[in-house]
From TrEMBL:
Keywords: Cell membrane, G-protein coupled receptor, Membrane, Olfaction, Receptor, Sensory transduction, Transducer, Transmembrane, Transmembrane helix. GO terms for cellular component: plasma membrane. The lineage of its organism: Eukaryota, Metazoa, Chordata, Craniata, Vertebrata. GO terms for molecular function: G protein-coupled receptor activity; olfactory receptor activity. It is a multi-pass membrane protein. It is found in: Cell membrane. CDD domains: 7tmA_OR14-like. This is Olfactory receptor. Belongs to the G-protein coupled receptor 1 family. Odorant receptor. The chain crosses the membrane at residues 23-46, 58-76, 96-116, 137-156, 195-223, 235-258, 270-287.
């Protein structure tokens, strides 16, 4: 145990010490990761190539898919590698990068979901002013603010969290470098600054949640006044999946980060981490995008033989950029 205390990195205990179970979980994570990559790359490609999908709604969807793609790539490949190699060690530098990108992308994800709820509020409740309010200039600046806010949040958490002296054995009952698990190793009375940063981030997330709820209260009150049942169904089909994604992400992530860290491994801890770290980025394309008829039409159009041949070079240029 002395070596665990003196080492510079951390030992991720993950899910199990059983070798067969480790390999099985690595394969399940690999399949899930490939599904997430495929679904999110399809959305990014379709919304970039199809000229019919250039409205603000699809512009924000493209950035949400990019965030999901990066978010799941921060932890899952490392976890697969650790399981296959039967080695849970992660260096301090790798842990710092994981924490930074995890917090930055999670914060950006909450922010982009809030922007998307406002976009849908304007589209449904103020349709005559939609093009004026959600113009190209406003959309670009909103997305820029989303990425900058996420980066700032990640930088604050990383700087404060890794400036805290650690006194415990560097064991983490997780499959990635998790802030609550790192904080439980902190020396007594040494993490007051992290509490302040966490309180600030929690307050910002709460403001985003309230803004989203207010937007949807206005949306649903407007929708219920629509005389056409078909029109109401169309709006609910578009908005309810987005509301589900926001609620699901904030509830699972909030449960994991707001409660005190445990000194022993809990199946509930791992389950909630898997929900918001792995399952949600994988299901987002199906929940929020690929069920959309315009997205399906764009997907068929882009993947058709003639269209694909015509746009192949353009697609390569996008991903090179």
């Amino acid at each position: 145990m002395a070596s665990l205390t003196s080492m510079s990195g951390f030992l991720l205990l993950g899910f199990s010490d059983n070798r067969e179970l480790q390999i099985l979980l690595a394969l399940l994570f690999l399949v899930t990761y490939l599904l997430a990559l495929t679904g999110n790359l399809l959305i990014i490609s379709v919304t970039s190539l199809d000229h019919c999908l250039q409205s603000p709604m699809y512009y924000f969807l493209k950035h949400l898919s990019l965030l999901d793609l990066c978010f799941i790539s921060v932890t899952v490949p490392q976890s697969i590698t650790n399981s296959l190699m039967n080695n849970g060690y992660i260096s301090r530098g790798q842990c710092i990068l994981q924490v930074f990108f995890f917090i930055a992308l999670a914060s950006s994800g909450v922010a982009i979901l809030t922007v998307m709820s406002y976009d849908r509020y304007v589209a449904i409740c103020r349709p005559l002013q939609y093009e004026t309010i959600m113009n190209n200039y406003a959309c670009r600046h909103a997305v820029t603010a989303v990425w900058l806010a996420g980066g700032l949040s990640g930088l604050m958490h990383t700087a404060v969290n890794f400036s805290i002296p650690l006194c415990g054995e560097r064991l983490s009952h997780q499959f990635f470098c998790d802030i609550p698990q790192v904080l439980k190793l902190a020396c007594p009375h040494e993490f007051i600054n992290e509490i302040a940063v966490a309180a600030f981030t929690t307050s910002a997330a709460f403001i985003c949640l309230v803004s989203t709820v207010v937007s949807y209260v206005h949306i649903f009150s407007t929708v219920l006044r629509i005389p056409s049942a078909k029109g109401r169904t169309k709006v609910f089909t578009t908005c309810l999946p987005h509301l589900f994604v926001v609620t699901f992400f904030l509830s699972t992530a909030g449960f994991e980060f707001l409660r005190p860290p445990s000194n022993s491994q809990s199946a509930m801890d791992l389950m909630f981490s898997i929900f918001y770290m792995v399952i949600l980025p994988t299901l987002n394309p199906a929940i929020d995008s690929l069920r959309n008829e315009a997205m399906k039409a764009g997907l068929r159009k882009v993947l058709s033989k003639g269209e694909f041949a015509q746009r192949k070079m353009y697609l390569k240029a996008i991903f090179k950029f």
